[in-house]
Amino acid sequence: MILLLLVCSLLLAACGGKDVDVGQPDYDQTKKMIVDILKTDEGKKAVKDIMTDEDIKQELVMDQAAVKNTVENTLTSEKGREFWKNSFEDPKFAESMAKSMKKENEQLLKSLMKDPEYQGMLMDILKDPVFQDDLAQALKSKEFREQMREVVTDTLESPLYKARLEEIAQKAASEKKGSKSSGNEKKQNNENTP
């Protein structure tokens, strides 16, 4: 009987000997565990299954509309306009924005150039005497001349342009040589004929 009590007490001591903390695990452990689970094949498959669920897709579409409305309202607000005004004053931001929209702007201009109404409006502007006077004044300005001088200098210093110019000069020289030699042959032929 004593032996039986001793075995039972040992079993109870063995089972209840550890002090188990049944509280919540800390944030870092939980985060690490979730990230590890998501990196497994089963985790990836579960995420794919969730993303293909029609209800989830519908929620995402509704969220996209909400995001779109929020962005539109923010951009058209007074603070939004002030933000864009200040942002476009920064040359780096303006350059990166222009580069990102280059393709869309080209497409827009190409489609506008084919539009008869746009062409007519553009012709009206070009024919406007006030515009022509302003353009003439701008072309005569010191700033424009300096800008043109810089453009011409940059073009003449360009290695591609230099190579092309050299090619044209060599071609002209060889043509001149060829015409001189054919002119000399004609002169000799004329002198030899009685």
From TrEMBL:
Spore germination GerD central core domain residues: 60-173
Renumbered residue ranges of the record's region Disordered: 171-194
Record protein name field: Spore gernimation protein GerD
Source species of the chain: Bacillus norwichensis
Organism ancestry: Bacteria, Bacillati, Bacillota, Bacilli, Bacillales
